[in-house]
Amino acid sequence: MLVTALFTATPVHAQDVSSRDPQTMPSLGSVLSTLPTDLRALPTVANAVWLASAGGLAFAVHENDSAITEGAAGSPNLEGFLDSGSPFGNGFVQGGGALGTYVVGRWTHRPQIAAVGGELLRAQLINAGLTHGVKFIVNRERPDGGSYSFPSGHTSATFASATVLSRHFGWKAGVPGYALATYVAGSRLSENAHFLSDVLFGAGIGIVSGRTVTVGRAHPFVIAPAVRPGVLGVSVTAVPRH
Description:
Layout: H1 2-8, H2 28-33, H3 35-41, H4 45-61, H5 65-73, H6 76-82, H7 86-89, H8 91-107, H9 111-138, H10 153-169, H11 171-190, H12 196-212, E1 221-228, E2 231-238
Antiparallel strand pairs: 1-2
Helix pairs in contact: 4-12, 8-9, 9-10, 9-12, 10-11, 10-12, 11-12
């Protein structure tokens, strides 16, 4: 999905991560040196709304966490369908994919692709810091008895990548990206590794991480969590261009 999006979709905004010059190839040093700027861009009203919304949804389903996870983990059909999701959300897979995208951009002399890879890498670094920081503070027990359940790192990592891609390439990358992220989130329930509130707040952290490294990029559509009895997903609403 990542490679297809990068090489077939048309960027919404062709801007380099460091110099804002689409013809300048970003160095790895310039990509990483942008992290302090990203962190200063993190505390915004929009990001606060995203986290508050994710936190509100997590709190709303908290009472039913155990029942929902038990139902998902106890369903052979659901477990079989979602069994392939977890590997995609692994931090090393997401981070490796980000670094690989940057390397491919450098290797093929395509500054825009290298810039996207740089933003994906920075999003993963910020996401890892936020996710693991909350994990250690909350220290919630997992449904399978493990530690550091809240929030889901697999979910946050995939939502971070999906957000970066959607803000670069629009719905052609955003829809499959968020669909994969939702699939990964569901797999964490079916594997009895997380509660629903863990993946909901993880999605919020991932979206905020992706938004933070893509400040100034247009959103051709609006992504919002969709949670109803028996349904966990995202809604996509197109925004008309003027």
